[in-house]
Amino acid sequence: MRFLVTGGAGFIGSSLAKALEKKYPKAKVYILDDFSSGHFKNLIGFSGEVITADLSKKELWEWLKTNFQFDAVFHQGAITDTTVQDQRRMMEVNADSLRYILDACLHWKAKLIYASSAGVYGNSKPPMKEEEGLEPENIYGFSKLTMDRIAINFLEEHPEIQVVGLRYFNVYGPGEHYKGKTASMIYQLYRQMKEGKRPRLFKWGEQKRDFVYIEDVIRANLLAFEGNISGVFNVATGIPRSFNEIVDILNRYLGTNYEVEYFDCPYDFYQNFTQADLSKAREFLGYEPLYSLEEGIRDYLERLGETMSPKKDD
Ligand SMILES: NC(=O)c1ccc[n+]([C@@H]2O[C@H](COP(=O)([O-])OP(=O)(O)OC[C@H]3O[C@@H](n4cnc5c(N)ncnc54)[C@H](O)[C@@H]3O)[C@@H](O)[C@H]2O)c1
Fold first, then answer.
1. Residue 140 annotated to the active site
2. Cβ < 6 Å from ligand 1: which residues?
3. Are residues 220 and 246 in the same domain?
4. What is the pTM of this model?
């Protein structure tokens, strides 16, 4: 088997590429990335090839069609900084490129599993269901919603190929630190506390998000690949947790006692509450989150080299 992972130098893509090599040792895994937000250090331990290119270029996909054959494409590459305001570039890279990728997958008869986002829901009413509340509040969320619509329209025309969109909620875990300011709040708060600083939160830290650990996201991708279903599915834990709770968990595991420093939120738009409805993912993908926030943070801290108190409060 041959797999292509776009955005494979990034946080999720690099983990996925390594997980594919582990699960399918005879397969060849290729990564396509332009290293705009990814980092080669994420690829230490990856043994496949890297293709360095801009995935928004149609010519690239024509060249790939002629020179390669893939059984599945895991499309993770995107502009992932949700504060980017360049609407045209965001749409070209995130949304328009999907048309070229779908066309290539049709040519190869390959499965396509692509990353969508909870950004499609904006601040609509939770719990968020796949077919409801599609009210993105920024161009990033709009670009991801456009991807889902392109995919669904394509499937109507070409039901012979399998296409799965996975709407990740807030993902955290090893490999995200190269994302800098766009890394998860879990990582940002951990860094601040490790540097001996008080953790900083927007007033009053009670905003809640559905945080999902990288291992659950990787498993959702593998389930999508192994199954035969097409469609768009939420990938999350289904349980919203507050930023204050993250600080409490980190204090407990790191053996610290930091108090939060609260400040005003500078953004016009901010997702205050996200919670996924997972019924569709459970029913059709067989997806079940395995990591609670406590279990995910514990595993993450261990992989960051922290030694923690015995498992008492998970
Ligand atoms: N991390 C999250 O919480 C989260 C939540 C929802 C959705 N997603 C989606 O998951 C996917 C992976 O995100 P991530 O968190 O790993 O982010 P990331 O920024 O670490 O990864 C994105 C990768 O895409 C590459 N890339 C960007 N533009 C490219 C281009 N034009 N050509 C080739 N490569 C390009 C980057 O260099 C990077 O390696 C993205 O599609 C993102 O929108 C992530």
1. yes
2. 7, 9-13, 33-38, 54-56, 76-80, 93, 115, 117, 168, 170-171, 179
3. no
4. 0.97
Q: What is the pLDDT of residues 66-93, one digit of tens each?
A: 999 999 999 999 999 998 999 999 999 9
Phi, psi of 284, deg, nearest 5: -100, -30
Residue 311 confidence (pLDDT)? 55
**Which one-letter DSSP state was computed for residue 69?**
-
Domain count, the chain: 2
Best mutation site among 4, 5, 6, 11 for ligand 1, i.e. most ligand atoms within 8 A of its Cβ?
11
Compute, in angstroms, the gap from residue 77 CA to the centroid of ligand 1. Answer: 5
Angle at 109 between CA 104 and CA 115, to 5 degrees: 60
CA 139 to chain centre: 17
Q: What CATH code is carried by the domain that includes residue 197?
A: 3.90.25.10
Q: Is the backbone of residue 184 left (phi > 0), alpha (psi -120 to 50) or beta?
A: beta
| pLDDT tens-place string over residues 212-266 | 999 999 999 999 999 999 999 999 999 999 999 999 999 999 999 999 999 999 9
Which bin fits 172, alpha (ψ -120 to 50), beta or left (φ > 0)?
beta
pLDDT at residue 309 above 70?
no
Length of the chain as a residue count:
314
The pick from 4, 5, 6, 12 for probing ligand 1's pocket by mutation, whose C-beta has the most ligand atoms within 8 angstroms, reads: 12
Give yes or no: residues 147 and 206 share one domain.
no
Expressed as residue numbers, the domain containing 184 is 175-210+238-273+292-303
Name the pairing type of β-strands 261-263 and 200-202: parallel
179 & 149 share domain: no
Say whether both 119 and 166 belong to one domain. yes
Q: How confident is the model at residue 271 (pLDDT cuts 50, 70, 90)?
A: confident
Q: Whose CA is nearest to atom 26 of ligand 1?
A: 77
Atom of ligand 1 nearest to the CA of 144: 43
* Domain shared by 45 and 82, yes or no: yes
